[in-house]
Design goal:
The protein is an alpha/beta fold. Helix content is 32%, strand content 23%. 52% of the residues are buried. The structure holds coenzyme A (COA) and adenosine monophosphate (AMP).
Length: 636
């Protein structure tokens, strides 16, 4: 069977037209393609050029027509509101068709953008699918981001309509969304004609006359509208993700390739069949929520779970297992950080063992590197395959991992098994030469990549080329480093850019630095990733104050921390910063962030040959040791 897998993988690379042309039969098209894979005049790959389809049709209407009208499409389980709501395919289709009518009534049409700023409520999924239904492009912004982040996305996407909820609900507090929206819309260049606000009973928002409209009132009198065919190459959505600067990258997902990738990966990677229940415990603000809450499960006629809660604290560390039991979840997906949080509170699995988990066949983990003790712990308790798999917002679906629908390779904790069909993964050194097995290098994907992968950035085609294609000719740079072992298993070890991964969320240290530097007392700063037992990493700020600044250092640090939280949002988890006399730099003035990261995490380091003054590193070591931050004093 592993030979069959190897043969399938070989064929996917040797004959992409044949392989993906067959996979595309799982999708309904209103017009078939002229070619499976072609290139535009810029040399950008186009999958299924000439074809027309509609994502909402494939996710909803066709299942209603094909006998799934009464099957559950969506189970909303919200421990934070004490609600469980179940929607069949017929009910969800009805809601979506009506809300599509609302959007169309406000003038939203094919190619227009709508921005969605909502927590994990069914209406968020309705809004996404309604946009897809009329060929509009949605851009979902995670509810944990503050006004500045929301505004930068509005400025870039230029949406006609903003769809929001009145509040989000965190375990310890209600998060009002309206002030964030108002603040964002007051900033330069960030405006929308229409806001549709879902009023939640926990906190209703005051609506702005003329601009804001109540969701329930709008949908009550709405006419249902049908699915608008769009080109396979038309964007389905824009999803902003962190790059190395403060300006987020607008990842553009092509409609047709995405449909094919979702249908194929649900079946052959996650091994999910129609009618089964699939649960991705993520947020619709991230790519996992797009691919495997809102779209993937519905496209294959499965039942998706939408969980508005946390792994711990809503109410306890048994929450995930309760959801699996109550909804008979067959396949589950979460981030390692969630398992670490559960493990800390329920180390012996006492709560886990009190639930009936017999429905659960596999647990998939992604979003950050999974430390072996975490996957070993959960494997020993669940006794099912634990599949660590690796991918990115840009790719939209997995690159490497155990494809359970094809062949189950033995698990190796710490590795993401083997590249999936469609993906030609290589490890290169700095000169672009392949390295030997076991040697670490840049992980790259040979072009062309399979369908569904973003091939442009919104408003920034050149930035795409510079960010991903310019480093190694003919390859896509993942910005991850790792190696293949002797068994051909891939190990993804670390990012190679200034991006850190906080609780499975990708954050730009450069963006945090920009905010800190905008605080009046700050002369300069550096932000690096500090290892964290639960979140994997958290940002640590090293701050140099202007020479004339007066005041208590701890008060200044607290004010800077509050400034970051207010500007970027709580999810950045920026809670630790120290004031240092100066930053270690090279003779040409570049901050030595890599060396600082090693120092704060107690990793032995080699003194960089280009360092201007080694004493700057000793000073940092002393400040961190005195403030008991990070690992014990790092040795060089
Ligand atoms: N809206 C508003 N605020 C939010 C938010 C949202 N949607 N999501 C998180 N926040 C806030 C939290 O309340 C918290 O605020 P605080 O500083 O006042 O406590 C802060 O942002 C950090 O949130 P979080 O990362 O959730 O940390 P936590 O300490 O509350 O919980 C975990 C830790 C491990 C339980 C949590 O990070 C988690 O569930 N992680 C799973 C991540 C995941 O699924 N990632 C998707 C990738 S697949
Ligand atoms: P995002 O685009 O937010 O999904 O983040 C993608 C990044 O998260 C990747 O480039 C990796 O750095 C990291 N990542 C995701 N999944 C894994 C994994 N299974 N193992 C190691 N790193 C991962």
């Amino acid at each position: 069977m592993s030979d069959e897998f190897a043969e399938l993988h070989r064929r996917s690379l040797a004959d992409p037209d044949g392989f993906w042309g067959e996979a595309a039969e799982a999708v309904d098209w209103t017009r078939r393609w002229d070619s499976v894979l072609s290139y535009d005049t810029e040399g950008t790959p186009q999958w299924f050029a000439g074809a027309e389809t509609n994502t909402c049709w494939n996710a909803l209407d066709r299942h209603v027509e094909n006998g799934r009208a009464d099957q559950l499409a969506l189970i909303y389980d919200s421990p934070v509101t004490g609600t469980v709501r179940r929607l069949t395919y017929a009910e969800l289709t009805d809601q979506v068709a009506r809300f599509a009518g609302v959007l169309a009534g406000f003038g939203l049409a094919r190619g227009d953008r709508a921005l969605i700023y909502m927590p994990l409520v069914p209406e968020a999924i309705v809004a996404m699918l309604a946009c897809a239904r009329i060929g509009a492009i949605h851009s979902v912004v995670f509810g944990g981001f503050a006004a500045r982040e929301l505004a930068s996305r509005i400025r870039d996407a230029q949406p006609k309509i903003l769809v929001a909820a009145s509040c989000g609900i965190e375990p310890t507090r209600i998060v009002p969304y309206k002030p964030v929206i108002d603040a964002a819309l007051e900033s330069d260049g960030a405006s929308v004609e229409t806001c549709i606000v879902l009023q939640r009973a926990e906190l209703e928002a005051e609506l702005t006359k003329g601009r804001d409209h109540d969701w329930h009132e709008c949908i009550a009198g709405a006419e249902k509208v049908g699915c608008v065919p769009v080109a396979a190459t038309d964007p389905l959505y824009i999803l902003y993700t962190s790059g190395t600067t403060g300006q987020p990258k607008g990842i553009v997902r092509p409609s047709g390739g995405h449909l094919v990738a979702m249908a194929w990966s649900m079946r052959y990677f996650y091994n999910v069949r129609p009618g089964e229940t699939f649960w991705a415990a993520s947020d619709i603000g991230w790519v996992v929520g797009h691919s495997y809450i809102a779209y993937g499960p519905l496209i294959v006629g499965a039942t998706a779970v939408l969980y508005e809660g946390k792994p711990v604290g809503t109410p306890d560390a048994g929450a995930f297992w309760r959801v699996v039991q109550d909804h008979k979840v067959a396949t589950m997906f979460t981030a390692p950080t969630a398992i670490r949080a559960i493990k800390r509170e329920d180390p012996d699995g006492t709560m886990l063992k009190s639930y009936n988990l017999s429905s659960l066949r596999a647990l998939f983990l992604a979003g950050e590197r999974c430390d072996p003790p975490t996957s070993e712990w959960v494997e020993s308790l669940l006794e099912i395959p634990i599949v660590d798999h690796w991918w990115q917002t840009e790719t939209g679906w997995p690159i490497s991992g155990n494809a359970l629908g094809l062949h189950q390779f033995p698990t190796k904790h710490g590795a993401v098994a083997k590249p999936i069909p469609g993906w030609d993964v290589r490890i290169l050194d700095a000169e672009g030469k392949p390295v030997k097995d076991g040697e670490i290098g840049a992980i790259v994907c040979k072009l062309p990549m399979p369908p569904g992968v973003a091939t442009i950035l919104w408003n920034a085609p050149q930035r795409y080329k510079e960010a991903y294609l310019s480093q190694f000719d003919g390859y896509y740079s993942t910005e991850d480093a790792g190696y293949f072992d002797d068994d051909g298993y891939l190990h993804v070890m670390t990012r190679t850019d200034d991006v850190i991964n906080v609780a499975g969320h990708r954050l730009s240290t450069g963006a945090i630095e920009e905010i800190i530097a905008s605080y009046p007392d700050v002369a300069e700063c550096a932000v690096v990733g500090l290892d964290d037992e639960i979140k994997g990493q958290v940002p640590l700020g090293l701050i140099v104050l202007k020479s004339d600044v007066e005041g208590e250092p701890h008060e200044i640090v607290a004010a800077i921390i509050a400034h970051v939280r207010e500007s970027m949002g709580a999810v950045v988890a920026f809670k630790t910063a120290v004031i240092v006399p100066r930053l270690p730099k090279t003779r040409s003035g570049k901050i030595l962030r890599g060396t600082v990261t090693k120092i704060v995490n107690g990793v032995p380091y080699v003194l960089p040959a280009t360092i201007e003054d080694p004493a700057a590193l000793d000073e940092i070591n002393k400040v961190l040791t005195d403030s008991k931050i990070g690992a014990l004093e790092a040795k060089r």
